[in-house]
Amino acid sequence: MLSTRHGVRPLGAADLNAFLELARRDPVVNAFVDYRAVTTNLEPRWLGGEMWGRFEGGQLVAACHVGANLVPVNAGPDDAVAFAERALARGRTVSTIVGPQEAVRVFWNGVASSWGRPREARWDQPHLVIAGEPQVAFDPEVRRTTSGDMAQLYPACVAMYTEEVGVSPEAGGGAELYRARVSQLVNRGWSFARFDRTGRLVFKAEVACATPYAAQIQGVWVPPDYRGQGLATAGMAAVVRAVRREIAPNVSLYVNEWNHPARAAYQKVGFRETARFATIMY
What we know:
By secondary structure, the chain is an alpha+beta fold. It has helices spanning 16-23, 31-40, 44-47, 77-90, 101-115, 150-165, 175-188, 231-246, 260-269; strands spanning 8-10, 50-56, 59-66, 69-73, 96-100, 120-130, 143-144, 191-195, 201-210, 214-221, 250-254, 272-281.
């Protein structure tokens, strides 16, 4: 039975194929939700939340991931309004709303009066993709990290997160969980870094999620005193090369519109904008 007049209900394992068909209409933009669906089988206990679907004539036409992150999937304006109405009925449980700009904007307009003031809203985030070889030379010193690198890697991850998000991932007792997340990426072979001759980490990046179609990069970071030396450009070329050869054919990320140095580095590597994202953080 559908739970609202708009045809929105939680999806489950029986809906997995229909959901993947929907998400893979835009497999690069939807890499995160595709990955989450496959790895959790849409089971709420593994999702840490729910995946909502909106149906028309019995067909799944849009979806919405509702965990720590709320992510609209192939959602037009009417879909985003319907998801916002369902979200209002249950109250805010998410810490971030992120996804294609227009869907996030419509959803936010529907919940803003009840969900309270966000800590920050980033409305213009270019979503970038590279589907070929890097256009600059790659840094041969960039490699996958190992558990033996954690003494350098973990503080760098904390510094990057704090600089990017505005709060430490260790705040509120989150250090153990965040360290486990970093270790998980290392163990999967999804963490890359370059170290100088003294052993100091001078570049890093991680694969946040991956499907057979695309991998999404996160956590690109160079220490402030090493910036401006081309480490991010050559480092990202190395990451793209490794990821495309061993993980997924398309490599994507999204970046803040105002981060001109990062955008310039990605453009040199060969990334091109394919969409605009927005992120609202509580």
